[in-house]
Each structure stands twice: as structure tokens, then as C-alpha cells.
Specification:
Elements: H1 2-15, H2 41-45, H3 66-70, H4 87-92, H5 96-102, H6 104-116, H7 120-123, H8 126-129, H9 132-135, E1 149-154, E2 163-170, E3 173-181, H10 196-199, H11 201-209, H12 214-218, H13 227-244, E4 257-262, E5 268-274, E6 279-286, H14 301-317, H15 328-345, E7 356-361, E8 369-377, E9 380-389, H16 402-418, H17 427-430, H18 436-452, E10 465-470, E11 476-483, E12 486-494, H19 509-525, H20 536-553, E13 563-568, E14 576-584, E15 587-596, H21 609-625, H22 628-632, H23 641-658, E16 671-676, E17 682-689, E18 692-701, E19 707-708, H24 713-723, H25 745-765
Antiparallel strand pairs: 1-2, 2-3, 4-5, 5-6, 7-8, 8-9, 10-11, 11-12, 13-14, 14-15, 16-17, 17-18, 18-19
């Protein structure tokens, strides 16, 4: 046995790039009777074994009412940053441990019973042992009542991150679930960025867990090839159920195991080990600029000194620790990271927010508006991207005002350092010089994103303020004032044929009359206003702009992220079809279609004549359709059916990339995709099935991007190696972490280009 343990520990250390102690407690397989309907009646009777954890609670009917009040609404929002309040309890908890240690008095009882065994009368005690009647307390054990809601929990952490689950619990069962596999920054990453064994496990585990009770989820089989991740997800689910209990366990404060935390600025990661009631170990790791663990061999003398000084302080005082003299900035980051780990470990995590991605807008103006996309964890801002949109509400990127472009990075840093929005924003203190208005807009957008994340929604359907709305074909801009869920004012502007707003004093009399009539109609009747005769298209655009403005004002997070997403249709040996789709509130607001050759360069007028004719028609039809469902119904253009269908597939895949919560969490779309090497001399065509790459074909190109057939022996060898190392049914040998190969320099150089092309093709196929 000792030998087996030694081998296991050695293996764990070899696998971990940074050595630290891993405690992997067994999954909690306790069986709780579930309100409404338990999956198996016998499971409920099997309850005696877990009795120590008995999480009694009243009848199932008593659910949600208790939860809402716990998390008071927006007023409490700013306080989210005031984290440690709950923490001191946690660190003070050791007081509970003595009780446990006091129990040995009971263990001393055997000595007394040994003496008693001399007395015959005592031997008759079996009758007393027959006290199972008292043990029949299972009858007294009340059903565990799980409160309906969305709960996020994480499994045990390791150097590559951790598994997590966002679980929607309803009537004691998993109604919906999003499985997370995080980076070391504890932010969920694209499926394809994880180990290949995990790729198919997402879908399989989700299917196995949906509809299960707590005990049913614990009994689910792990997916072969992804055992650790499967068990991490199961542990996360079990912890989510524990958090959802109406009455939390009286004998435990923490989930026993290793928990990870990262400060919002991603300077440090902390591994905190807990047993049920106390902190037992702390490890501190610096992170690189890319959010990975720094290699211990590369630690600077200052980092080594900081770790040595801060770690014992965290172990002794937890998140109540004071900064260490000489390491104030490092201490602040480490304490924030520890706090994060402690929240992940706490059974009764009291965060007012649901972890996840949220997006919102600041105050709109006639020149545009600011938007913020954020990721929130444990009530803290852990990732933020800031955008400046033009009058058409499309991101201006580097074309925005120079001062605004310059302000983006420092404002991002300021928000992350704050771990939230700035509650009492002062433009002189908190704004970035030269872009104070945009700084305020970004801060306001982040504040609204936090409100969207509240577990208990704030009152009202819309935020108060001024919001912009534009129809998806950019004909009309509305600035809409909203107060108490009512539209109180509307300013309507028309776009000219040049895509710019027509100034009020430049409108024709007909345009002025049109604007006045539309404004009055929208104010009086909203989107139900009647069309103006002869101006049906503009009337429809005005109503669409109002819908857009109200969606921007909504406190509910949408299904799709805003932005431009590039996707491809299925390829063949002449090239592929590409779509750059810009979405706002799930609507197509811009689309650029193109036909690219084998070198991935737009063919333009060199494309087939029928395809050239089809592209403007399809562009107009996709914009008119406006939605994912509408785009799927667009008719193929006669003479270019294959390309039309490929472009429709590309638009749908762009929507797939934009999903906030992926309906099908997969590494790759199924289909045929191509990629080219950086110098455009090698093309690789990859076929994906069941969301993994299964076959590859290598093409060599001339300087015009045409396929070359007169190949050298070295080129043939590379082609043969890549094309013939797969059976077409499972993951291709070069479908995961492909690397150059060859027995001579020529082969190595050619294979390196082929690998570049494979990676480009996989990027095109990636979800």
C-alpha cells in the first residue's frame, strides 16, 4: 500500500509544473431525499450512511423565499467590493475545531466497557445495544430542501486551473448546466484550448447530468479519457447542490479540498487548502502577463522574497491579513487572491451576483456610446473589455478619437484594480485625462453589467438614462430617455446615403415632417405606431431602432455577445466562403461576404461570375433577415447554390461563436475547413466530425494560390505523413498540439509550414 501511495504521489508531482500539495477528497456521494421527486425511491432509504452530514430542512415547498432577501438588491451592489466582511467569520472558525477534538472523551468509553464486561449483568447489555430504535432517527431526518436558482461552484484546483459548473436547480434537480474548464485565471476558456480528451466530454457529461438529483449526479459515470475533468465537474455539481440547501450543514463551513483564487489584476494565484472548518495550508504563485503560472525557475529575487514574506501571513490571518512592509502592492494582490479562493471554498458563499459574462452600455450621445463586456466571479470584476461605438452603434476600434483609444488601457487597468465599477465616480479623479466622458461611460456600463448579474434582480425592467438605438440597416438613430420603465423622450435622426447622420439644419422639409411624425408616433404608441404612408421602410427602421434602444436599456443579459465574428462555410479544393458578421443584441447589423481561394485571400473579381453576382444579393437578404433564424431561411441564389449554402452556414457559425452560453459546448464545428501557411505556400484541408478533426489533406500552392502537383520527394513525404496517420474515425494525430517533423532540414521546413496551415484550418473550424 505504501508503495502504491508513493507511486501515486510521484506521478502527481511529475504531472504538476509547479509542485504543491493536492488533496483530492472523495466525491460527496451522500443521498438526500429531494423535494418533489427523487430519482430512485430506494436512494432515499439509503440515507443512514450519510447521516452525519444530515442537512435537515423543512418541507420542499418552502424554497426560494429565503434566498432573495439574503442578497439585497442594488443598494448592496457597491458593497460587493467590500468583501472580507464575511471572511473574518471563516478565519475565526477554528474555534469550532476544539469541539471536534473534545470528542475523544467518547472514545475513552471503551475502557469503561472493558471493565464492565466482567459483570454478567453487563453482558446482558445487548438489549441496550439493540437501541437501534434510537438509531431509527432516520425517520426524524428531514428532507434536504434545495432552493431553486443558479449556483456556481468549482472543483478542486490544480496548476492548469479547475473545473466548475453553473447549475440551474429546479425542484431538486438539474434543470440546466454549463460545464466550465478554466484557465489558471479561473475564467472559462474555449473548449479547444483544453486537453483533447475533454473536447467530447462536455457534451457527454452535460447529457448525463441534466435532470439528475444530487445523488443521481454523484452516480454518473466519468467520460473515458477525461476522468479528472469529469470528476471535477461532478464535484462542482455536488458543491452547487450543497450551496443551494435551504439549511446549510451545521458542522461544516468549507468544502474540504484545494481551492484556487486569483486577484482581479491577475498578479497572483493562491491555493488554499481547507478541511471542513479551517484553513490548513496556503501556497502563493505569481502569474505571467498571459495569465499562466510563472515557472518557479524564473522567479526573481523579489518574487521569491515576497512569497516567503506573504505566505505565512495569509496562513495566519487569511483575508484579514495586513500588507507586509516592503511588499504592500504584492500583499494587496495576494490578499485579494486569497479572498477569492476563500469564497470558492465557502459553502455559504454570500455573493450577491451570479458568476459569468455580462455586457452593458453607458449613457448614449449623438456621437456614440461606450460599451463594456465583463466577467464577474464572486462579486468581483475579473475581466473587462471596453469599446467605443460610433453613431451606428458599431465598435470604432482604432478609428475612435485618439484620446479615447489611448484611454482604453488605463481605464481597463483602473477598473480591474478596483475589482468593480467605481462607486462614487469623480471624473477628475477617476476619469482618464482627455477622455473623461468616455471614462464615465465605461464605468457606468460596468456598473450596469453588475446589476444584470444580481442574483435577486433589481426592480424594473430597464435602467434609467439615455440609450441609443439603430435599426440593423442604419437608416435611423434614436436617442431614447427612459425613466421608471417609461420612454419619456425621443430624439430621432436620419442617416444619409453616406452613412452619416443628417444634421437637423440640413434636413429637407419632407424629412423634417417625417421625423416629427415618427417621433410623435413612437412616443404615443411605441413599436405599435402606424407606418407613415409612402415611408414604410423608414417607419419600420424607426420601430426597429426603438426596439434596439430598449434592448440596450434592458437589465437582462442577451443570448449573444455584440461584436464582429468571422466564420467559414465548408471548403473544397478551390477554396471556401467567408462571412464577417457584426451582431448587436442578436441582430445582424453588418455582414461582409467573400469567396477566398486556397491561399485564404479574397478572390474578388477572380471568383466565379455567379458567385460575384450572388454576394450582394445574399448580403442584402441577410441584413433584411436580421436574425440567426431568418438567415437560415434565406434562399440560395440561382447559379451559386453551393456558395449560397456555404455562406448561410458561415453566418450560422458566426452566431455559434457569439453565444454567451454555448448551446453545444464543442471544440470545433463539424464540416470541412482550410487554412494556409503564413507564406501562403501550403494549404491543409481538415474535416471535423463529432466536433474533432478526423482527416487532413495537404496541398502545395504556387505564387498565385493555385494547387501545385509537381512535388518534390520531401513534399510528398510530408503530405503522406499527414494524410495517412488517421483512420478518419477518431482524433487525427495532428489535430491536437501539432508539431513539425522530418529527418532532414528540408522536411522539417516543409512540415513546419504544413503545421502552420493545420493550425489556421483548426482556427477556422473552432467554435
Amino acid at each position: 500500500m505504501k508503495k502504491l501511495i508513493a507511486l501515486t504521489v510521484s506521478a502527481a508531482l511529475l504531472l504538476a509544473p509547479i509542485a504543491y500539495t493536492i488533496n483530492a477528497p472523495a466525491l460527496n456521494l451522500k443521498v438526500d431525499a429531494v423535494s418533489a421527486a427523487s430519482e430512485e425511491a430506494p436512494a432515499a432509504t439509503a440515507k443512514p450512511a450519510p447521516k452525519p452530514t444530515a442537512k435537515p430542512a423543512p418541507k420542499p415547498t418552502a424554497k426560494p423565499a429565503a434566498t432573495p432577501k439574503a442578497t439585497a438588491k442594488p443598494a448592496a451592489t457597491p458593497k460587493a467590493t467590500a468583501k472580507p466582511a464575511a471572511t473574518p467569520k471563516a478565519t475565526a472558525k477554528p474555534a469550532a475545531t476544539p469541539k471536534a477534538t473534545a470528542k475523544p472523551v467518547a472514545t475513552a468509553a471503551p475502557a469503561a466497557s472493558a471493565k464492565a464486561s466482567a459483570k454478567p449483568a453487563a453482558t446482558v447489555k445487548p438489549a441496550a445495544t439493540a437501541k437501534p430504535v434510537a438509531t431509527a432517527a432516520p425517520v426524524t431526518v428531514k428532507e434536504a430542501v434545495y432552493q431553486d436558482g443558479v449556483y456556481v461552484a468549482y472543483g478542486d484546483a490544480y496548476s492548469k486551473g479547475t473545473e466548475g459548473a453553473k447549475v440551474t436547480i429546479k425542484d431538486g434537480k438539474i434543470a440546466d448546466i454549463e460545464l466550465l474548464r478554466t484557465s489558471p485565471k479561473i475564467i472559462d476558456r474555449n473548449a479547444r484550448d483544453n486537453y483533447s480528451g475533454v473536447w467530447v466530454a462536455y457534451g457527454l457529461m452535460k447529457d448525463r447530468l441534466i435532470g439528475k438529483t444530487r445523488d443521481g449526479a454523484a452516480a454518473v459515470d466519468a467520460v473515458s479519457g477525461a476522468t479528472r475533468s469529469s470528476n471535477g465537474w461532478k464535484l462542482s455539481v455536488d458543491r452547487a447542490f450543497e450551496r443551494s440547501l435551504q439549511d446549510k450543514p451545521a458542522d461544516a463551513t468549507y468544502f474540504a479540498g484545494d481551492h484556487m483564487g486569483v486577484d482581479p489584476e491577475a498578479k497572483y494565484a493562491v491555493f488554499a487548502s481547507y478541511d471542513a472548518n479551517k484553513l490548513t495550508a496556503v501556497k502563493l504563485y505569481p502569474l505571467t502577463a498571459t495569465g499562466d503560472f510563472a515557472d518557479e525557475k524564473t522567479y526573481t529575487a523579489e518574487q521569491t522574497a515576497a512569497i516567503a514574506a506573504i505566505t505565512p501571513v495569509l496562513l495566519a490571518n487569511g483575508s484579514a491579513a495586513k500588507p507586509v512592509a516592503g511588499f504592500e502592492a504584492e500583499s494587496k494582490a495576494a490578499i485579494n487572491a486569497f479572498w477569492d479562493a476563500e469564497q470558492n471554498a465557502s459553502i455559504n458563499n454570500t455573493s450577491a451576483y451570479v458568476d459569468g459574462f455580462y455586457s452593458s452600455y453607458g449613457t448614449a450621445r449623438s456621437v456614440g456610446v461606450e460599451r463594456a463586456d465583463v466577467v464577474i466571479r464572486n462579486g468581483k470584476l475579473v475581466d473587462v473589455k471596453l469599446f467605443r461605438l460610433g453613431t451606428n452603434l458599431i465598435d470604432r476600434g482604432a478609428t475612435a478619437y485618439a484620446e479615447v483609444v489611448k484611454a482604453n488601457a488605463p481605464m481597463t487597468a483602473k477598473l480591474l484594480a478596483n475589482g468593480s465599477y467605481i462607486a462614487n465616480y469623480d471624473e477628475k479623479v477617476d476619469g482618464i485625462s482627455g477622455a473623461t466622458e468616455s471614462s464615465h461611460g465605461w464605468n457606468q456600463a460596468v456598473e450596469r453589467a453588475f446589476e444584470k448579474a444580481l442574483k435577486v434582480s433589481a426592480e424594473g425592467k430597464y435602467f434609467d438614462g439615455k440609450f441609443a438605438g439603430v435599426d440593423n440597416q442604419s437608416k435611423v438613430l434614436l436617442l431614447v430617455d427612459v425613466a421608471d420603465d417609461q420612454v419619456t423622450a425621443i430624439k430621432l435622426s436620419l442617416f444619409g446615403t453616406d452613412g452619416k447622420i443628417i444634421a437637423d439644419d440640413k434636413r429637407t422639409d419632407a424629412q423634417k415632417s417625417l421625423v416629427d411624425q415618427l417621433t410623435a408616433g413612437l412616443l404615443a404608441n411605441g413599436v405599435d405606431t402606424a407606418d407613415i404612408a409612402g415611408q414604410e421602410a423608414v417607419s419600420a427602421a424607426a420601430k426597429a431602432a426603438l426596439t434596439d434602444a430598449l434592448t440596450n436599456a434592458s437589465k437582462v443579459q442577451g443570448t449573444y455577445k455584440d461584436g464582429t465574428f468571422t466564420a467559414y462555410g465548408d471548403a473544397y479544393d478551390k477554396g471556401t466562403n467567408k462571412a464577417d458578421v457584426t451582431l448587436r443584441n442578436g441582430k445582424i447589423v453588418n455582414v461582409a461576404l467573400s469567396r477566398v481561394g486556397m491561399n485564404m485571400v479574397d478572390l474578388g473579381k477572380a471568383a466565379y461570375a455567379e458567385v460575384q453576382k450572388a454576394i450582394p444579393v445574399l448580403t442584402a437578404n441577410f441584413l433584411a433577415a436580421g436574425t440567426r433564424e431568418g438567415a437560415a431561411q434565406v434562399d440560395a441564389v440561382s447559379g451559386a447554390t453551393s456558395s449560397s449554402n456555404a455562406l448561410k452556414a458561415a453566418v450560422d457559425r458566426a452566431y455559434g461563436k457569439a453565444e454567451v452560453v454555448e448551446t453545444e459546448k464543442a471544440a470545433y464545428f463539424d464540416g470541412i475547413f482550410i487554412g494556409a501557411s503564413a507564406d501562403k505556400s501550403v494549404n491543409v484541408m481538415v474535416t471535423t466530425k463529432f466536433n474533432v478533426p478526423v482527416t487532413m489533406v495537404v496541398y502545395y500552392l504556387d505564387d498565385k494560390g493555385k494547387v501545385r502537383y509537381n512535388l518534390t520527394d520531401d513534399e510528398l513525404l510530408v503530405k503522406y505523413e499527414i494524410e495517412n496517420t488517421s483512420n478518419g474515425k477518431g482524433l487525427h494525430k495532428y489535430g491536437y498540439r501539432a508539431a513539425a517533423f522530418g529527418t532532414n532540414d528540408a522536411q522539417k521546413a516543409i512540415s513546419a509550414k504544413a503545421i502552420e496551415a493545420i493550425k489556421a484550418a483548426l482556427e477556422a473550424a473552432g467554435k
